[in-house]
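ok here's DUF624 domain-containing protein:
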Amino acid sequence: MSTIGAARGLFAYDGRLARVLLAVFQCFAISALFLLTALPAIVVDQASGRISHAAIWLGVLAALPIGPGAYAVLAGMRGFIAEHGYQGRLFKRFWSDFATGTARLRWLWAGAAAMELLLAYNAALYGDGDGAFLAVTAGGVLVAAAVVAVCCVALQGASGRPLEVLTLALHAAAARPLAPLAWLAVLAAALVATQLPVFGANLSLFLPALAVWTLLTANRVTGFDRKAAALIG
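and the structure:
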């Protein structure tokens, strides 16, 4: 009976196996939805030929949905961690978070797009030099770290004027420097993983959610969340 009971507990609709499968499905669904928001940028990147003003501007515009998409992934995985597994209503939750992130942080996406435009022009004009390449790379890294920091503190309840929220996010990141270093390491590892032969494309269907889960775990371990909560409070 004990063996039968254990088997029933494992294979029940709310058993351990079902919870694991639902968790895997959530990671897949959230990642696939994020990739859908990145699809315009991917299409433009693949379709672009020679560098031109139109190509640069179109590329920046096509990348605009990626920011709110990243916010929605962060929100979804925060819920996943808080509820210890599958949340349900994934598609509705994702697009609701996407709309919230779009409206709530529209100033952030506008600023990031402006910086992206500036970096793209610098890369196009001076990209042949090592110094210019390093400068553009460093600028991109700083923009990525700032976007992650603002999204994280916004999800913790930070509100106010854009400059106040940005200052709070950068203060928390500077106070816990291991957190932004962990973010960049996670993003770099995810990008490298997508380039792996044979497995890279398949990993892409799970990487956004897994990368964000790792990022949120790093926030907790490094104390970024506690510092941000103290600043917000």
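+1. The mean pLDDT is 86.
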